Amino acid sequence: MDFLEEGSWNLSFAGAGYLALYHVGVIHCLSQHAPRLLQGAHRFYGSSSGALSAISIICNKSVDFCCCQLLGMVKLVEELSLGIFHPAYAPIEYIQQQLRDTLPDDCHILASQRLGISLTHWPDGHNHIVTDFATKEELIQALVCTLYMPLYCGTIPPAFRGERYIDGALSNNVPFANCASTITISPYYGTADICPRSTSASLHELNAFSASFQICTANIYLGYISLFPPKPEVVADISRQGYLDALRFLEQRGLIKEPVLWTLVSKERPAPAKGGCGGFTWDVPHVQLKDVACFEQLAPELEAALKKTCQRDSSVWTRFHRSGPGRALTYLLLPWSLPFEYVYYRSRRLALWLPDAPADLLWIWGQIKGMVYSVFSRTKPGLR
């Protein structure tokens, strides 16, 4: 891929759950050092949370906005006494409302033919890539469908154009990953163009969901925190690593004329060797975040956004709630407080669900009839 002809390449963002902040680091690095890769791309593909990263590029959202939205969700989970198992945890409803409040009114026009959202059709599991959107609400529905993880997000799949869809990562986690003109981005150790490089000696790979993952303990950990988010500071470090991995990709492809990564690990300038796209290349080191003494000098805008969003409320009550005695008191009161919280939040979600209840109940009835007919068809020959 020489990136000479504008519109001859695509970017594909893997589904990553709460690891989507990795994509923010990658996007910020590309916008700083190779803005042409974003401006001249033909289409941006994404599944699950990767689709949110793709739409953020199309709608020209700032790095501060993206960090605030994604880390804001992590901080909300941190405040819940039972984490994602708390009845107040409703990621789909939260994201849907944020999309309605923050996306511009013409987002569907901007996204049509530039955004490709990976969807998994329910119940046959076939993958669909949607690239055109008639209204803003239709675009939001497509994004909600690709984010919907069964059981984790609820029990009734959302609808898009009269059909039920679930998380696009379950059928195609990295759309068009095998296409030579696609730049793939993934926070998991594997074979994506931009991804972390593992120090593990394991050469085994797992090919699943149209993506390749290295079998290592680091990927198991990343898979866990993608659904059960750790502290915001840990997620922020993943974004910083995304910036470094994108920088390594640019240097390896000869798209940067200065050895930025080399200067982070060595004081001596590398001897250039002929290669790359008609220019000079050098041995590009693999730099991990722990190797960078001051990340703020490398990416001041990203660092400022991450630090700003990671800050907690400094009020007396909030500090007490985060302290050891405060958490102990919270868990001691759970047997009394949890039933009331459960009734309150479930009633609230029920009220929000009522407008969609007729269509959802009709769909459930259709599923029940289909299962009964299937069982009857299989047992009928044996009854004769």
Automatic annotation (TrEMBL):
Single GO BP term: lipid homeostasis
Catalytic reaction annotation: a triacylglycerol + H2O = a diacylglycerol + a fatty acid + H(+)
Annotated GO MF terms: triacylglycerol lipase activity
Chain ranges of the PNPLA domain: 11-180
Sequence motif: DGA/G, positions: 167-169
GO-annotated cellular components: cytoplasm; lipid droplet; membrane
Record bears the keyword Lipid metabolism: yes
PROSITE patterns cross-referenced by the UniProt entry: PNPLA (PS51635)
Keyword Lyase (UniProt): no
Position of sequence motif GXSXG: 46-50
EC number: 3.1.1.3
Active-site annotation: 48, 167
Function recorded in the entry: Has abundant triacylglycerol lipase activity.
Entry protein name: Patatin-like phospholipase domain-containing protein 5
Organism: Cavia porcellus
Upper lineage: Eukaryota, Metazoa, Chordata, Craniata, Vertebrata
Gene name of this polypeptide: PNPLA5
